[in-house]
Amino acid sequence: MQRHGLFGTSGIRGVVNVDFDSVLAMRLGVALANILEKGTLTVARDTRTSGQMLSSAFEAGVVAGGLEVIDLGVLPTPVLAYLTRLLRAASGAVITASHNPPEFNGIKLFDTDGKAYSDAFQSQVEHALSSEELACASWDRLGEVSSSDYSFHYVEMILGRMELGKTWKVAVDFGSGSAYQVGFELLRSLRCDVVSLNAQPDGVFPGRNPEPTPESLSVLMTTVRNMGCDIGFAYDGDANRVSFVDETGRFVDGDVALAAFASHKVRRQGKGCVALPVDTSLAVQEAVEKNGGQVTWTKVGDTNVAEAIKGNKAIFGGEPCGAWIHPDFHLCPDGVLSSVLLLKALEEEGMTSHEFFSGIKRYPMKRGKIQCQNLAKSEVMKIIASNLPKALGRKVGITETDGIRVQVPEGWVLVRPSGTEPAIRVTAEARSDPLVEHLFNTTYKLCSDTARENVN
After folding, report:
1. How many alpha carbons lie under 13 Å from residue 421 in its C-beta half-sphere?
2. Below-70 pLDDT ranges, the chain
3. How far is CA 21 from the centre of its chain?
4. Active site residues
5. Residues 370-385, buried b or exposed e (16+ Cβ, 10 A)?
6. Cα(11)–Cα(110) distance, rounded to whole angstroms?
């Protein structure tokens, strides 16, 4: 992996031993120790087969740099983030590739407050790596690694702040990921009747793809419907995302779920700011504003959403992929916490899950991605930005906050390089099916042709 632009929208990611290997992990540990100079780091990992190798290498680098490490074992990313703040660690790190396939892995870093590091700090880390001047501590000043299970603090924190008024029957697809233990324990402690799927930790993810999509959750949808569950939850590999299935067995679109919960949050508080990335449906903005709230738009990526929440004192923020941030608790997207708060919202609204999500006005939207080598992304995006407005014809405006977003009468289309995988993402939304098909198909073809012509 190149030493410039290592960090995407959610840490560093790549194919194991191709883009991200133990050497890079170890050097990253030394670099972080050099920057921080003192303190303790918390480290966790998801269930991927490469997790132990990479976490051991990273920890070796931190120790070589003279800092201490607390190895927390297999934990969801949000639990690691929360414990980093609770334990007053100088920094935290989780070895994960989140929703990516099993051959991928990566690392995400958190500051002492349990918030993902800013772009400025990540650039500082990249500079340290590229300087070739990493300094190791002398033999008598090396750090040490200790191992502890502090996950009970996370469960106790949530149980101490809320309770549910009824026994919910919930089907949960853990996807063989890192929420298999903490998620189950929390839901059972809240008196939920839990029907578990893919609850065995397995880094090959044999039950389904780590990304919880309609295509990967067919078994969950059938289980919810056939077993009379009130709702279904599904997590990605590190449980910073959650997807929902209502009691009819219907997969809930991510924008619909985000709009329903955001509007509930604003309605309960009477007002408030909600942070949303630029690829979010206008339906979410309409739902928030209809209930007295306001929206602040951000670049795509939970790090950017967290920064906007903190900077604007927002009451909630989230992405359509199911990465929701609840600042009342902490500033990391948390799929397990989102599940519990969704159940609480259903109780407060006195609704079934189907009723809760059905009140959202929907517009036709299409999302897709085109494979594109990381090294080619910059050139491909330049060509697309130059040609897309002309290809679409009449337009209202163009913004380049994150990729290129072209606004046309009654719709919009966004093209942006993925920050988590070698791909270009395309999102189109319009007030009619023919228009969204035109926007998406025209843009997708342009992106596909451009990416194909720029293969290295």
Report:
1. 16
2. 1-4, 456
3. 22
4. 98
5. bebebebbeebbebbe
6. 10
Q: How many residues does the chain have?
A: 456
Locus of tokens 């939304």: 429
Tokens representing 45 are 């990992």
Q: Name which of 117, 115, 112, 61 is nearest 90 in CA terms.
A: 112
3-state secondary structure at position 155: helix
The DSSP element (H or E) to which 405 belongs, if any, is strand 404-408
Q: pLDDT tens-digit profile of 29-65?
A: 999 999 999 999 999 999 999 999 999 999 999 999 9
Q: Which of 89, 73, 104 is nearest to 32 (CA)?
A: 89
In this prediction the pTM is: 0.90
Share of the chain above pLDDT 90, in %: 87
What is the rounded distance in angstroms from the CA atom of residue 376 to the CA atom of residue 276? Answer: 28
Number of H helices, E strands in the chain: 14, 19
What's phi and psi for 197, nearest 5 deg?
-125, 145
**Angle between helical axes of 77-86 and 335-349 (0-180°, round to 10):** 100
